[in-house]
Amino acid sequence: xxxxxxxxxxxxxxxxxxxxxxxxxxxxxxxxxxxxxxxxxxxxxxxxxxxxxxxxxxxxxxxxxxxxxxxxxxxxxxxxxxxxxxxxxxxxxxxxxxxxxxxxxxxxxxxxxxxxxxxxxxxxxxxxxxxxxxxxxxxxxxxxxxxxxxxxxxxxxxxxxxxxxxxxxxxxxxxxxxxxxxxxxxxxxxxxxxxxxxxxxxxxxxxxxxxxxxxxxxxxxxxxxxxxxxxxxxxxxxxxxxxxxxxxxxxxxxxxxxxxxxxxxxxxxxxxxxxxxxxxxxxxxxxxxxxxxxxxxxxxxxxxxx
Length: 306
Hints:
This protein is an all-alpha fold. It has 14 helices and no strands. It has one domain (18-301).
């Protein structure tokens, strides 16, 4: 017992470097929810006068707080898979020693909720839901990520839908976002399911060995890639149709043009899915999120984002 306690104490005393903690929080992943929150702000139709600080706080909550927490939690519960797929990650490499990965996930959850309390009931509730999904995605007993259908849906809802709706609600003083805004948030959440599948191609071998049933594992890589492409494309096509019906033809053409470019890139991606998944993420996903902001401005141009 004494030896175990001494070992635990030594592991706690061996604190990780700030650079390793920042790498654990994966800043590159913060962009999608931050962007979605900004889209909700734009779609709300509310004047930014006197509300810049509120909007900036919300964007920060979506990225460096809630999203960063989800990354720390995911890396802790994925440490055995990462030891196979990405052994240089902070936890399997030992740069985040002992149980520090878990402590950081718990601590940053508390910090995120404290920051969220500054945004009122909508901001706090949305952050709490996003954090709940983050833990459910990675941690047992639910561990939604073990099934690609459920795990990717949780990420899409959290990263895009909740962030968009929260941005709109916070700017409107806590009022429920308009129906059109919620529809767009739901459609882009659905499209993000396909984007999340792109991330699974780099981890196929480790997922198979550790029993993680990502879509490439369940469906095979080629079929999963096609499902991902359809999942990204169809919601955007629906957005184009809706924008036309809402009397925003110029915005519909812009979103349609961005979708057409994505379809060209998808055709190239499908030629070699594992090798080109990261390539498509780098070039296709920015077009996807560009369409999000175009559609948000379409609602703003309607006067109230309703």
